[in-house]
Design a protein that fits this description.
The structure is a single chain. By secondary structure, the protein is of the alpha/beta class. It is elongated. The protein folds into 2 domains: 173 residues, Alpha-Beta Plaits (2-Layer Sandwich); 167 residues, Rossmann fold (3-Layer(aba) Sandwich), CATH 3.40.50.150. The strands form 2 sheets. A 7-stranded mixed β-sheet has the order 2-3-1-4-7-6-5. A 7-stranded mixed β-sheet has the order 10-9-8-11-12-14-13, with helices on both faces. Helix 6 packs across helix 8 and helix 10 runs parallel beside helix 11. The protein is built from 11 helices and 14 strands. Bound molecules: S-adenosylmethionine. S-adenosylmethionine (SAM) binds next to helix 8.
Length: 371
């Protein structure tokens, strides 16, 4: 028996529930599934509830993780276990999982990214090992990659939602939170944003091809240099374009040339560079136009850029940016890959990866290979 889906479990940055809901709605509708959202402002969590139960694999297909920008994590909601008694929470949870007649390859224990939910961490540290041991003993939790991941999304110590996902079709990080260590000597915390973008938005193959010594990168809006640092650390040459001051350590590395110029009009002295990245605080559509010019014209092979979203109509603004990019590539019938996500290190913004792809039949929604 295949589990049936009640809906989607979506985790997002608190404050972005509306955008997350809009995405779920549009994906579900396109997949022929109707439903409604249950969420509250700043909860960091959206339950998208289907009007009718559907097979969980159908739900998975309708709402693939890579299609979301604002969901940090998404799983297919199959059950809720509520009112777990304080004296014995293990038994009802195990019985509810067993009743699904599933085998799973991994457990992901989740809460929303709120202070209230974080206070559960002590309880979960004590509770989860019991669950894991029991699931293994009952041969529900097996060490097999191909089996789905079981998500346990805790609201509090008495209520948990069960979700399923497949490896490679969910965030590789629990709760979609990339905990990266701040590198020593990095000029700004922004460096983590680009580090996360490399991991979250690119395939292993793309990283191997494009992040290696000797290649050239252009960093538009570079100061103080956190993004340039990611390239120079890898032995790559960087044109760091910004009228603002760059960290001395970067310039001293000999890998970074500080160009005091306007990022919208400056052009690289090389015919083609591997990378252009852009973190300028500017109107999103203007940035989208600029970076699609760089990539569509072949001046750079690939791009990671940040779009600072307005407080209102963020979803619509993003749609506008997609249209700008699509029109620019449409001029010569070029094909491209565009992946956009609100990263853990993003605030009122999203980060995107853009590259031209040669083959007309290349898959525009190519799946990211996950770690
Ligand atoms: C968010 S900061 C960049 C932080 C940088 N990515 C880092 O990791 O340290 C934005 C930068 O964009 C620069 N900027 C804004 N408009 C620009 C323009 N038209 N041309 C060049 N730089 C610009 C600002 O001077 C500022 O230093």
């Amino acid at each position: 028996m295949s589990p049936t889906a009640k809906g989607l479990l979506l985790l997002c940055r608190p404050g972005f529930e509306k955008e997350c809901t809009a995405e779920a709605e549009s994906l579900a509708r396109a997949g022929g599934i109707s439903g409604f959202a249950r969420t509250t402002a700043d909860s960091g969590c959206v339950h998208y509830v289907f009007h009718e139960l559907v097979d969980w694999k159908e739900a998975l297909e309708a709402a693939p993780f890579d299609a979301f920008v604002f969901a940090r994590q998404r799983s297919i909601w199959i059950e809720r276990v509520a009112d777990m008694p304080q004296e014995d929470r293990v038994t009802p949870l195990i019985e509810a999982i067993a009743a699904q007649e599933i085998q799973v390859g991994r457990l992901d224990v989740e809460t929303a990214d709120t202070n209230e939910a974080k206070s559960l961490s002590g309880f979960l540290k004590r509770f989860i090992p019991h669950i894991e041991r029991t699931l293994k003993a009952r041969r529900i939790l097996r060490d097999k990659e191909e089996l789905p991941t079981l998500h346990l999304l805790f609201k509090d110590s008495s209520q948990v939602d069960l979700g399923l996902s497949r490896l490679g079709d969910a965030s590789p990080w629990p709760m979609g939170i990339a905990r990266l260590r701040m590198p020593r000597n990095a000029p700004s915390r922004s460096t983590l944003k680009l580090a996360e973008a490399f991991d979250a938005l690119m395939t292993e193959e793309e990283r191997t091809q494009s992040l290696k010594p000797g290649l050239y990168a252009v960093d538009l809006g570079a100061a103080p240099g956190g993004w340039s640092f990611q390239f120079s650390e890898r032995g790559m040459h960087v044109y760091a374009v910004d009228n603002g001051p760059l960290a001395d350590s970067l310039v001293a590395s000999g890998m970074v040339e500080h160009v005091r110029a306007d990022g919208f009009s400056w052009r690289a002295p090389r015919k083609q560079v591997e990378w252009v990245v852009c973190d300028m605080v500017e109107q999103p559509a203007r940035v989208a136009q600029l970076v699609s010019d760089w990539i569509a014209s072949g001046k750079a092979k690939r791009c990671i850029f940040n779009l600072k979203l307005p407080m209102k109509k963020r979803f619509e603004e993003l749609k506008k940016c997609r249209q700008v990019i699509s029109s620019r590539f449409g001029l010569h019938g070029d094909h491209y890959v565009l992946r956009i996500r609100q990263l853990y290190h993003d605030r009122e913004e999203v980060t995107a990866y853009l590259a031209k792809i040669p083959a007309p039949d290349s898959n525009k929604t190519a799946k990211l290979s996950r770690r």
